[in-house]
Write a structure and sequence with these properties.
Strands 1-5-6 form a 3-stranded antiparallel beta sheet. A 3-stranded antiparallel beta sheet has the order 2-4-7. It is 30% helix and 22% strand. The site of one cobalt (II) ion (CO) has 5 residues, from loops.
Length: 279
């Protein structure tokens, strides 16, 4: 995704009376914790680490490596930066990163699976740095992609980009999902319903939920200081899914390919800023 082409606004969150009022109101009404300037600074550091980890993995993706090796790379770089991996032990998740191959939609567990030429693999990282969480993921090609792999990855990438473009004050959560669903279905693909984006920063998963489908003008109004992920999971076939007997791995019912991109996004006074700014 060429995020350089997306307008990038300075993350100016006014510390005015108005912000304090909104902060209290959003906490009471929706349990949404708005982030102040100091939190944003902390989250940007965590976000840059997430980008560094994803870039490091990208350099090592090739046919023949195992998903356990990706887990090892994540652990190594996270430790080196005095950070922690949020997935490890999260509700019993056994590894430090999710690696979701081909028909796996999300929450794939790293193991001795060997990646082969033509596979796609989503790598989802969530470092915790100085107490702040940043959540981001990318789907990589292993070797040379076939037509289907190219299609689903490019549609998922564009879905995230279009969703992010809806992030600005006074727009609503539903505007994001509407834009994503319209594009995905227009391309003959489908949007996963059961897993959604989420507030993030002080914890791994905070309110609000951010569906990648829905209606324009619905849901909570966006205000400066909100931080949430947008992480559309897009299937080449139907949206239906099931969870494997390991109780984590989520796969498409029809066996079709699934791809995902995820970024952590801040609502600013004028629009948005991506806190996990990978390309
Ligand atoms: N990183 C995932 C997300 O984007 C959540 C993974 S939960 C885990 O929300 F336990 F599987 F790591
Ligand atoms: Co997430
Ligand atoms: Co994630």
């Amino acid at each position: 995704m060429n995020y350089k082409k997306l307008k990038r606004k300075l993350s100016k969150i006014s510390s005015s009376h108005n912000f304090k009022k909104k902060k209290a109101q959003y906490a009471t009404l929706y349990h949404i914790k708005l982030k102040e300037q100091k939190d944003i600074i902390g989250m940007k550091k965590a976000g840059r680490l997430a980008v560094d980890i994803l870039n490091h993995i990208e350099d090592h993706i090739k046919p023949g490596i195992t998903t356990n090796y990706i887990n090892y790379l994540v652990e190594e770089l996270t430790k080196k930066n005095n950070a922690f991996s949020a997935p490890l032990d999260y509700q019993g998740f056994p590894k430090s990163v999710c690696t979701s191959v081909n028909n796996v939609i999300c929450h794939g567990i790293p193991d001795e699976t060997v990646l082969k030429d033509g596979d796609i693999v989503n790598v989802d990282v969530t470092p915790i740095l100085d107490g702040y969480y940043a959540d981001g993921s990318k789907t990589f090609f292993v070797g040379s992609p076939g037509k289907d792999a190219q299609k689903i990855v490019s549609v998922a990438r564009e879905c995230l980009r279009l969703g992010i473009l809806k992030v600005k004050p006074k727009n609503r959560i539903g505007d994001i999902g509407y834009a994503i669903q319209r594009y995905a279905e227009g391309q003959g693909c489908s949007v996963v319903r059961e897993y959604v984006g989420h507030g993030v920063g002080f914890e791994f998963h905070e309110p609000p939920q951010v569906p990648h489908f829905g209606k324009k003008g619905q849901g909570v109004a966006l205000v400066p200081g909100m931080v949430f992920t947008i992480e559309p999971m897009i299937n080449l076939g139907k949206h239906n899914l099931h969870v494997l007997s390991d109780n984590w791995t989520v796969v498409t019912d029809d066996g079709s390919l699934s791809a995902q991109f995820e970024q952590t996004v801040l609502v600013t006074d004028n629009g948005f800023e991506i806190l996990t700014p990978f390309d």
